[in-house]
């Protein structure tokens, strides 16, 4: 088996070789390669050896599901995505993509296929008890958007690797996500919250979330070394993530996630009480004083709390107290408080750890719309930045 190399221009080469097809026929395969001629020769040798051993796969036969699973393995192996993201991608591939367009040949996927896939997900994309789409109820437009962006990301790489001629997902937009009213605490509930939670184990993290806007993972990863009660500030530097492989501490997703949050006096009081409570507990357990690396909101033995178990415990408490809000809604509640107080969107964005004020406006646009003047002020502040 022989191959040929032809220089296209500069460091671009065309690799050409034959491979056996079904029925004993032969097919000429073309590949593009960028690099030096020596590197192109090495790549051609690899392809020839792969074809000779039967390991060469004709790209035209690769299905959408096969390609996405292969890309996911590559992203994991190269560390391009976090374990939590990998877990989410795997779920999207197996639940929202593979059952609908997974068997479609990658190179034959069209914008019409993508459009039909969106429609199917909207009407019949939800899984039944057997783990397969139940054919009767659909998934949310937000979920479809997540799946669509994953497909587009993979196709964008396929375009760069010349496995597809174009990114059909880029040419077909996902369904629009309509802005819905968030379920948050009312001003009266916020005022009553300290008294309502008094004596509960979850009082300290819940009140800190409600008055700082910190995310669940950021709170559960917070260490005493990043809390300064004298200057009344918290330094957000880590987040706790739960995946199928276990718990891991990670850096914030963006540079904006690394931030310092000024504390109100009530939060300072909450954290003083929390520190005293933990010291008393450690004395009983014989663990000694608190160190800078010790967690502010740990499990009983000082270990990190599992985020999903923490949220489940909050849901039970919220039901008991008739609050009817998720733990994440406390972050939204804090944002609402700031908006109602007339704080500009740039300041809100920095406090919440958003990478851009545009993200803040996108999430909380409907809250700004309660007062058109605030919406205009928010836009002015964004443009001013």
Structure keywords:
385 residues, mainly alpha, DNA polymerase, domain 1, hpI Integrase, Chain A, 3 domains, three-stranded antiparallel β-sheet
Rg of Cα set: 27 Å
Strand order in the largest sheet:
1-2-3
Query: Secondary-structure element order, as H and E?
Result: EEEHHHHHHHHHEEEEEHHHHHH
Named CATH architecture of the largest domain: Orthogonal Bundle
Structure explained in plain terms:
51% of the residues lie in helices and 12% in strands. The chain has three domains: 3-56, no CATH class; 64-171, Orthogonal Bundle (DNA polymerase, domain 1); 187-341, Intergrase catalytic core (hpI Integrase, Chain A), CATH 1.10.443.10. With 385 residues, the chain is mainly alpha-helical. The chain has helices at residues 37-52, 64-78, 83-101, 111-124, 141-160, 168-171, 187-197, 203-212, 216-221, 265-285, 307-320, 328-340, 345-352, 357-368, 372-384, and strands at residues 3-9, 12-20, 26-34, 227-228, 233-236, 239-243, 246-250, 259-262.
Brief digest:
By secondary structure, the protein is mainly α. It has helices at 37-52, 64-78, 83-101, 111-124, 141-160, 168-171, 187-197, 203-212, 216-221, 265-285, 307-320, 328-340, 345-352, 357-368, 372-384, and strands at 3-9, 12-20, 26-34, 227-228, 233-236, 239-243, 246-250, 259-262. The chain has 3 domains: 3-56, no CATH class; 64-171, Orthogonal Bundle (DNA polymerase, domain 1), CATH 1.10.150.130; 187-341, hpI Integrase, Chain A (Orthogonal Bundle), CATH 1.10.443.10.
């Amino acid at each position: 088996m022989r191959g040929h190399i032809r220089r296209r221009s500069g460091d671009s080469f065309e690799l050409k070789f034959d491979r056996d097809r079904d029925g004993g026929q032969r097919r000429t395969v073309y590949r593009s390669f960028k690099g030096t001629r020596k590197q192109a020769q090495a790549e051609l040798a690899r392809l020839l050896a792969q074809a000779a051993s039967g390991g060469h796969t004709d790209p035209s036969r690769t299905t959408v599901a096969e390609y996405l699973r292969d890309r996911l393995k590559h992203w994991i192996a190269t560390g391009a995505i976090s374990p939590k993201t990998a877990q989410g991608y795997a779920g999207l591939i197996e639940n929202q993509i593979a059952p609908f367009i997974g068997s479609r040949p990658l190179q034959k996927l069209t914008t019409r296929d993508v459009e039909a896939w969106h429609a199917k997900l909207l009407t019949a994309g939800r899984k039944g008890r057997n783990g397969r789409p139940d054919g009767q109820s659909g998934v949310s437009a937000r979920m479809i958007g997540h799946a669509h962006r994953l497909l587009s990301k993979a196709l964008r790489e396929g375009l760069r690797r010349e496995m597809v001629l174009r990114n059909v997902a880029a040419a077909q937009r996902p369904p629009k996500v309509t802005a819905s009213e968030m379920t948050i605490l009312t001003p009266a509930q916020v005022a009553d919250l300290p008294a309502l939670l008094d004596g509960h184990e979850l009082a300290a993290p819940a009140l800190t979330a409600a008055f700082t806007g910190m995310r669940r993972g950021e709170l559960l990863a917070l260490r005493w070394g990043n809390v300064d009660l004298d200057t009344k500030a918290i330094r957000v530097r880590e987040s706790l993530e739960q995946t199928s492989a276990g718990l891991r501490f990670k850096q914030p997703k963006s540079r904006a996630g690394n931030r310092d949050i000024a504390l109100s006096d009530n939060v300072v009081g909450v954290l003083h009480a929390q520190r005293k409570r933990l010291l008393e507990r450690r004395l009983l357990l014989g663990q000694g004083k608190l160190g800078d690396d010790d967690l502010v909101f740990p499990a009983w033995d000082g270990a990190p709390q599992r985020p999903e178990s923490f949220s489940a415990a909050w849901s039970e408490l919220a039901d008991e107290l008739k609050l009817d809000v998720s733990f994440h809604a406390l972050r939204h509640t804090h944002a609402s408080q700031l908006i109602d107080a007339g704080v500009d969107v740039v300041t809100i964005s920095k406090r919440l750890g958003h990478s851009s004020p545009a993200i803040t406006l996108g999430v909380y646009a409907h809250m700004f719309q309660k007062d058109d003047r605030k919406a205009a002020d928010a836009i002015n502040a964004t443009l001013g930045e």
